Amino acid sequence: MKMSILDRILLLVTGLLAAYQIAFVIDDFSALPLVAYTIAFGVLLVSGLLMILLGFEVLDSPVVVIVTTIIPLTLSLGIVWQHLATFRIPYLVFVIIGFLAIAITRLFPMPGRLPTLVLAVVHGIAGITIFLLPTFLSIQGVTKPLFSLVGVGGALIGIGGLALSFLKAGKPILSKELILKILPVILFLMTLCFVVGFEYG
């Protein structure tokens, strides 16, 4: 599917928002959240630029599933580390094991539905964490109300990430054409929600 001018513009703005997030929004966070968020938005920035330069064909790479896992895992880790001190180490262990499990089941042939199951579990837990935790924190008054936009961004990244990951796994939940059509919009809205949520929340 050919990428339109509008798609390229949306991806460019997404990249600029991700760069802004890295340079100005997260620079006063503590060490691990700073590293986690930098990785997440750095991967998002590079992914957007590669799609602009190479088109949607870059998504045909077998490493796409692995790379798209980095964003929700590192984002959720940063949020947990900042706001749920008692779960820091257990969640860090989950992130490491989850990433390794997805990498292994994608790089080496695995029987049956194991790769799909691993993908769904890891993506699901990370996506639910990004969606629910900021929402609860803002409702409880622990953070400012706009921090709930991080949860909205988490919902969007969950939708986009799962759709793309299952497409690459050969078990699409939406048609390829529809996924590619809405992907730039999802990435833009998701990044905008993250930037506003983290800066003003």
Question: What descriptive keywords fit this protein?
Answer:
single chain; 201 residues; mainly alpha; 7 helices; 78% helix; globular
Structure description:
There is one protein chain. With 201 residues, the chain is mainly alpha-helical. The protein has one domain (5-200). Helices cover 78% and strands 0% of the residues. It is built from 7 helices and no strands. The chain has helices at residues 5-25, 31-54, 64-83, 88-107, 114-139, 148-168, 176-200. α1 (5-25) packs antiparallel against α2 and α6 packs antiparallel against α7. The longest helix has 26 residues, at 114-139.
Element layout with pairings:
Blueprint: H1 5-25, H2 31-54, H3 64-83, H4 88-107, H5 114-139, H6 148-168, H7 176-200
In short:
With 201 residues, this protein is mostly helical. The protein is 78% helix and 0% strand.
